[in-house]
Amino acid sequence: MITEILLKLLRKDPLIKRNVIKTVSWRIMGSLDTMLLSWLISGVFLIGIKIGVAEFVTKLIIYYLHERLWQRSNFGLLSKPQQARLVQKEIKPNLFKQVGKIHRHDRELLNKNKSFTLWLTGLSGSGKSTMAIEIEEWIHKNDGHIYILDGDNTRLGINNDLSFSNEDRSENIRRVAEICRLFNDAGIIVISSFISPFIKDRLTAKKIIGEENFIEVYLEASIDTCTQRDTKGLYKKALEGKIQNFTGISSNYEPPIDSCLHLNTENTSIEECLDKIKRILSHRINLKQLQYH
Protein backbone atom coordinates (compact mmCIF):
# COMPACT_ATOMS: atom_id res chain seq x y z
CA MET A 1 0.00 0.00 0.00
CA ILE A 2 2.74 2.45 1.00
CA THR A 3 4.78 1.43 -2.05
CA GLU A 4 1.81 2.16 -4.38
CA ILE A 5 1.30 5.58 -2.80
CA LEU A 6 4.99 6.43 -3.19
CA LEU A 7 4.96 5.31 -6.84
CA LYS A 8 1.93 7.47 -7.58
CA LEU A 9 3.60 10.45 -5.91
CA LEU A 10 6.79 9.83 -7.88
CA ARG A 11 4.89 9.74 -11.17
CA LYS A 12 3.10 12.95 -10.25
CA ASP A 13 6.28 14.77 -9.17
CA PRO A 14 9.71 13.30 -10.09
CA LEU A 15 11.36 15.67 -7.60
CA ILE A 16 9.89 13.67 -4.72
CA LYS A 17 12.67 11.07 -5.04
CA ARG A 18 15.33 13.76 -4.77
CA ASN A 19 13.56 15.44 -1.86
CA VAL A 20 13.25 12.17 0.07
CA ILE A 21 16.91 11.22 -0.39
CA LYS A 22 18.00 14.75 0.49
CA THR A 23 15.82 14.76 3.60
CA VAL A 24 16.96 11.34 4.80
CA SER A 25 20.68 12.01 4.23
CA TRP A 26 20.52 15.32 6.07
CA ARG A 27 18.59 13.88 9.01
CA ILE A 28 20.97 10.91 9.36
CA MET A 29 23.82 13.36 9.79
CA GLY A 30 21.83 15.53 12.21
CA SER A 31 20.52 12.58 14.26
CA LEU A 32 23.98 11.01 14.58
CA ASP A 33 25.19 14.32 15.98
CA THR A 34 22.24 14.48 18.41
CA MET A 35 22.76 10.85 19.44
CA LEU A 36 26.45 11.48 20.19
CA LEU A 37 25.73 14.64 22.17
CA SER A 38 22.93 12.94 24.17
CA TRP A 39 25.25 10.05 25.02
CA LEU A 40 28.05 12.37 26.11
CA ILE A 41 25.73 14.54 28.23
CA SER A 42 23.70 11.71 29.86
CA GLY A 43 26.51 9.19 30.01
CA VAL A 44 23.99 6.50 29.00
CA PHE A 45 24.40 5.07 25.51
CA LEU A 46 20.77 3.74 25.33
CA ILE A 47 19.35 7.20 26.09
CA GLY A 48 21.48 8.65 23.31
CA ILE A 49 20.10 6.09 20.84
CA LYS A 50 16.47 6.71 21.87
CA ILE A 51 16.79 10.48 21.59
CA GLY A 52 18.61 10.16 18.28
CA VAL A 53 15.97 7.83 16.76
CA ALA A 54 13.08 9.97 18.05
CA GLU A 55 14.64 13.08 16.60
CA PHE A 56 15.39 11.32 13.30
CA VAL A 57 11.74 10.35 12.76
CA THR A 58 10.13 13.63 13.85
CA LYS A 59 12.63 15.92 12.15
CA LEU A 60 12.46 13.82 8.98
CA ILE A 61 8.74 14.42 8.72
CA ILE A 62 8.95 18.10 9.65
CA TYR A 63 11.85 18.80 7.29
CA TYR A 64 10.18 17.03 4.36
CA LEU A 65 6.90 18.92 4.82
CA HIS A 66 8.80 22.17 5.18
CA GLU A 67 10.63 21.56 1.89
CA ARG A 68 7.41 20.69 0.07
CA LEU A 69 5.66 23.82 1.33
CA TRP A 70 8.53 26.02 0.17
CA GLN A 71 8.48 24.38 -3.26
CA ARG A 72 4.89 25.52 -3.62
CA SER A 73 5.82 29.10 -2.75
CA ASN A 74 7.10 31.65 -5.27
CA PHE A 75 8.34 33.95 -2.51
CA GLY A 76 11.66 35.47 -3.44
CA LEU A 77 11.65 33.90 -6.93
CA LEU A 78 11.52 35.82 -10.19
CA SER A 79 8.50 35.21 -12.39
CA LYS A 80 9.13 33.82 -15.89
CA PRO A 81 8.62 37.24 -17.53
CA GLN A 82 11.08 38.78 -15.05
CA GLN A 83 13.57 35.99 -15.75
CA ALA A 84 13.14 36.56 -19.49
CA ARG A 85 13.74 40.31 -19.13
CA LEU A 86 16.84 39.65 -17.05
CA VAL A 87 18.21 37.26 -19.67
CA GLN A 88 17.38 39.71 -22.47
CA LYS A 89 19.17 42.51 -20.67
CA GLU A 90 22.24 40.31 -20.35
CA ILE A 91 22.42 38.95 -23.91
CA LYS A 92 20.85 41.74 -25.99
CA PRO A 93 24.09 43.80 -26.34
CA ASN A 94 25.69 40.78 -28.03
CA LEU A 95 22.89 40.09 -30.52
CA PHE A 96 22.56 41.69 -33.96
CA LYS A 97 19.59 41.20 -36.29
CA GLN A 98 20.54 39.77 -39.66
CA VAL A 99 18.76 41.02 -42.78
CA GLY A 100 19.00 39.19 -46.10
CA LYS A 101 18.41 40.32 -49.66
CA ILE A 102 15.01 38.60 -49.89
CA HIS A 103 12.20 40.25 -47.97
CA ARG A 104 8.62 39.44 -47.02
CA HIS A 105 7.18 41.12 -50.10
CA ASP A 106 9.42 39.00 -52.33
CA ARG A 107 8.19 35.82 -50.65
CA GLU A 108 4.57 36.93 -50.96
CA LEU A 109 5.09 37.51 -54.69
CA LEU A 110 6.62 34.05 -55.03
CA ASN A 111 3.76 32.46 -53.07
CA LYS A 112 1.20 34.62 -54.92
CA ASN A 113 -0.56 35.54 -51.69
CA LYS A 114 -0.33 38.19 -49.02
CA SER A 115 0.47 36.74 -45.61
CA PHE A 116 -1.43 37.38 -42.39
CA THR A 117 -2.59 35.65 -39.21
CA LEU A 118 -6.21 34.69 -38.62
CA TRP A 119 -6.46 34.41 -34.83
CA LEU A 120 -9.42 32.27 -33.69
CA THR A 121 -10.23 32.62 -30.00
CA GLY A 122 -13.00 31.13 -27.85
CA LEU A 123 -13.75 28.42 -25.33
CA SER A 124 -12.82 24.80 -25.93
CA GLY A 125 -15.67 23.44 -28.03
CA SER A 126 -16.67 26.81 -29.51
CA GLY A 127 -15.77 25.65 -33.02
CA LYS A 128 -12.22 26.97 -33.53
CA SER A 129 -10.74 23.76 -34.94
CA THR A 130 -13.72 23.19 -37.25
CA MET A 131 -13.47 26.72 -38.64
CA ALA A 132 -9.69 26.50 -38.96
CA ILE A 133 -9.85 23.28 -40.99
CA GLU A 134 -12.57 24.59 -43.31
CA ILE A 135 -10.84 27.94 -43.88
CA GLU A 136 -7.53 26.17 -44.48
CA GLU A 137 -9.14 24.01 -47.17
CA TRP A 138 -10.76 27.03 -48.83
CA ILE A 139 -7.51 29.02 -48.96
CA HIS A 140 -5.51 25.99 -50.11
CA LYS A 141 -7.95 25.26 -52.94
CA ASN A 142 -7.45 28.86 -54.04
CA ASP A 143 -3.68 28.31 -54.19
CA GLY A 144 -2.90 30.14 -50.95
CA HIS A 145 0.06 29.00 -48.84
CA ILE A 146 -1.58 28.26 -45.49
CA TYR A 147 -0.76 26.57 -42.19
CA ILE A 148 -2.74 25.92 -38.99
CA LEU A 149 -1.22 26.38 -35.55
CA ASP A 150 -3.35 24.49 -33.02
CA GLY A 151 -3.26 24.69 -29.23
CA ASP A 152 -2.88 20.97 -28.54
CA ASN A 153 -0.33 20.46 -31.30
CA THR A 154 1.99 23.20 -30.09
CA ARG A 155 1.73 21.98 -26.50
CA LEU A 156 2.73 18.50 -27.68
CA GLY A 157 5.80 20.02 -29.33
CA ILE A 158 7.52 23.36 -28.90
CA ASN A 159 5.50 24.30 -25.80
CA ASN A 160 5.56 20.91 -24.04
CA ASP A 161 7.40 22.46 -21.10
CA LEU A 162 4.49 24.76 -20.21
CA SER A 163 1.69 24.12 -17.72
CA PHE A 164 -1.76 25.69 -17.67
CA SER A 165 -0.94 28.26 -15.01
CA ASN A 166 -1.79 31.86 -15.97
CA GLU A 167 1.91 32.63 -16.31
CA ASP A 168 2.59 29.69 -18.61
CA ARG A 169 -0.52 30.40 -20.66
CA SER A 170 0.85 33.89 -21.34
CA GLU A 171 4.20 32.41 -22.38
CA ASN A 172 2.38 29.89 -24.59
CA ILE A 173 0.64 32.68 -26.50
CA ARG A 174 3.82 34.77 -26.73
CA ARG A 175 5.73 31.88 -28.33
CA VAL A 176 2.87 31.15 -30.72
CA ALA A 177 2.73 34.81 -31.76
CA GLU A 178 6.45 34.76 -32.52
CA ILE A 179 5.93 31.65 -34.68
CA CYS A 180 3.06 33.37 -36.50
CA ARG A 181 5.28 36.39 -37.16
CA LEU A 182 7.98 34.15 -38.67
CA PHE A 183 5.45 32.30 -40.84
CA ASN A 184 4.00 35.60 -42.06
CA ASP A 185 7.49 36.90 -42.83
CA ALA A 186 7.99 33.74 -44.90
CA GLY A 187 4.92 34.75 -46.92
CA ILE A 188 2.65 32.10 -45.39
CA ILE A 189 -0.89 32.64 -44.13
CA VAL A 190 -1.43 31.34 -40.59
CA ILE A 191 -4.62 30.25 -38.86
CA SER A 192 -3.96 30.36 -35.15
CA SER A 193 -6.52 28.32 -33.21
CA PHE A 194 -6.07 28.97 -29.49
CA ILE A 195 -8.38 29.53 -26.54
CA SER A 196 -6.08 32.45 -25.60
CA PRO A 197 -8.33 33.39 -22.67
CA PHE A 198 -6.74 36.67 -21.58
CA ILE A 199 -7.11 40.03 -23.32
CA LYS A 200 -3.59 41.15 -22.43
CA ASP A 201 -2.09 38.06 -24.08
CA ARG A 202 -4.06 38.57 -27.29
CA LEU A 203 -2.95 42.21 -27.35
CA THR A 204 0.63 41.01 -26.91
CA ALA A 205 0.13 38.62 -29.82
CA LYS A 206 -1.25 41.45 -31.97
CA LYS A 207 1.75 43.62 -31.11
CA ILE A 208 4.23 40.85 -32.00
CA ILE A 209 2.51 39.83 -35.23
CA GLY A 210 1.65 43.40 -36.22
CA GLU A 211 -1.78 44.99 -36.07
CA GLU A 212 -2.04 45.11 -39.88
CA ASN A 213 -1.41 41.33 -40.04
CA PHE A 214 -3.63 40.28 -37.13
CA ILE A 215 -7.27 39.35 -37.73
CA GLU A 216 -9.03 38.33 -34.53
CA VAL A 217 -12.22 36.27 -34.75
CA TYR A 218 -14.13 35.51 -31.56
CA LEU A 219 -16.19 32.31 -31.62
CA GLU A 220 -18.74 32.44 -28.83
CA ALA A 221 -20.63 29.50 -27.32
CA SER A 222 -22.03 28.86 -23.85
CA ILE A 223 -20.46 26.43 -21.39
CA ASP A 224 -23.50 24.14 -21.77
CA THR A 225 -23.11 24.01 -25.54
CA CYS A 226 -19.34 23.47 -25.35
CA THR A 227 -19.88 20.68 -22.82
CA GLN A 228 -22.37 18.96 -25.14
CA ARG A 229 -19.89 19.20 -28.02
CA ASP A 230 -17.00 17.94 -25.92
CA THR A 231 -16.07 14.53 -27.34
CA LYS A 232 -12.84 14.42 -25.30
CA GLY A 233 -14.67 14.62 -21.99
CA LEU A 234 -12.52 17.53 -20.79
CA TYR A 235 -15.39 19.56 -19.32
CA LYS A 236 -16.60 16.53 -17.36
CA LYS A 237 -13.11 16.02 -15.93
CA ALA A 238 -12.81 19.73 -15.13
CA LEU A 239 -16.18 19.74 -13.31
CA GLU A 240 -15.02 16.70 -11.32
CA GLY A 241 -11.86 18.57 -10.34
CA LYS A 242 -9.57 16.24 -12.32
CA ILE A 243 -8.29 19.10 -14.51
CA GLN A 244 -7.07 22.30 -12.89
CA ASN A 245 -7.15 25.79 -14.46
CA PHE A 246 -9.63 24.73 -17.14
CA THR A 247 -10.97 27.74 -19.03
CA GLY A 248 -14.65 28.36 -18.41
CA ILE A 249 -14.74 26.15 -15.30
CA SER A 250 -11.87 26.96 -12.94
CA SER A 251 -10.20 29.67 -15.02
CA ASN A 252 -11.73 32.77 -16.58
CA TYR A 253 -12.16 33.58 -20.25
CA GLU A 254 -12.05 37.27 -21.17
CA PRO A 255 -14.04 37.90 -24.38
CA PRO A 256 -12.51 40.28 -26.94
CA ILE A 257 -13.76 43.85 -26.82
CA ASP A 258 -13.03 44.86 -30.42
CA SER A 259 -12.47 41.70 -32.46
CA CYS A 260 -12.66 41.93 -36.25
CA LEU A 261 -15.52 39.44 -36.22
CA HIS A 262 -17.77 38.06 -33.46
CA LEU A 263 -19.59 34.83 -34.29
CA ASN A 264 -22.05 33.01 -32.04
CA THR A 265 -21.62 29.38 -33.08
CA GLU A 266 -24.75 28.34 -31.16
CA ASN A 267 -27.11 30.46 -33.24
CA THR A 268 -25.17 30.50 -36.50
CA SER A 269 -24.54 27.51 -38.73
CA ILE A 270 -21.02 26.44 -39.73
CA GLU A 271 -21.73 27.50 -43.30
CA GLU A 272 -22.87 30.98 -42.23
CA CYS A 273 -19.83 31.41 -39.95
CA LEU A 274 -17.48 30.33 -42.73
CA ASP A 275 -19.18 32.67 -45.16
CA LYS A 276 -18.66 35.65 -42.83
CA ILE A 277 -15.01 34.76 -42.21
CA LYS A 278 -14.37 34.41 -45.95
CA ARG A 279 -15.90 37.84 -46.57
CA ILE A 280 -13.66 39.38 -43.90
CA LEU A 281 -10.57 37.77 -45.41
CA SER A 282 -11.42 38.66 -48.99
CA HIS A 283 -12.25 42.26 -48.11
CA ARG A 284 -9.67 42.98 -45.40
CA ILE A 285 -6.66 41.33 -47.02
CA ASN A 286 -7.72 41.84 -50.63
CA LEU A 287 -6.32 38.51 -51.81
CA LYS A 288 -6.86 38.73 -55.54
CA GLN A 289 -5.99 35.09 -56.14
CA LEU A 290 -8.57 33.97 -53.52
CA GLN A 291 -11.80 34.41 -55.42
CA TYR A 292 -14.70 34.61 -52.98
CA HIS A 293 -17.44 32.09 -53.78
Structure overview:
It is a single chain. Helices cover 57% and strands 9% of the residues. It is built from twelve helices and five strands. Helix 2 runs antiparallel to helix 3 and helix 8 packs parallel to helix 9. The longest helix has 28 residues.
Structure described in brief:
With 293 residues, this protein is of the alpha/beta class. Helix content is 57%, strand content 9%.
Distance between the termini: 65 Å
Task: Label the structural class.
Answer: alpha/beta
The residue ranges in which pLDDT falls below 50 over 5 or more consecutive positions are 289-293
**Named CATH architecture of the largest domain:** 3-Layer(aba) Sandwich
Number of domains: 2
Question: What is the overall shape?
Answer: elongated
Quaternary form:
single chain
Highest CATH level, the class of the largest domain = Alpha Beta
Number of strands: 5
* Total count of helical runs of at least 4 residues: 12
Taking the sheet with the most strands, its summary is: 5 strands, parallel
Any chance you could write out the topology, listing elements then pairs?
Blueprint: H1 2-12, H2 15-42, H3 45-71, H4 80-91, H5 104-111, E1 117-121, H6 128-141, E2 146-150, H7 151-156, H8 166-185, E3 189-193, H9 199-209, E4 214-220, H10 223-229, H11 234-239, E5 261-264, H12 270-285
Parallel strand pairs: 1-3, 1-4, 2-3, 4-5
What descriptors fit this protein?
single chain; 293 residues; alpha/beta; Rossmann fold; 2 domains; 12 helices
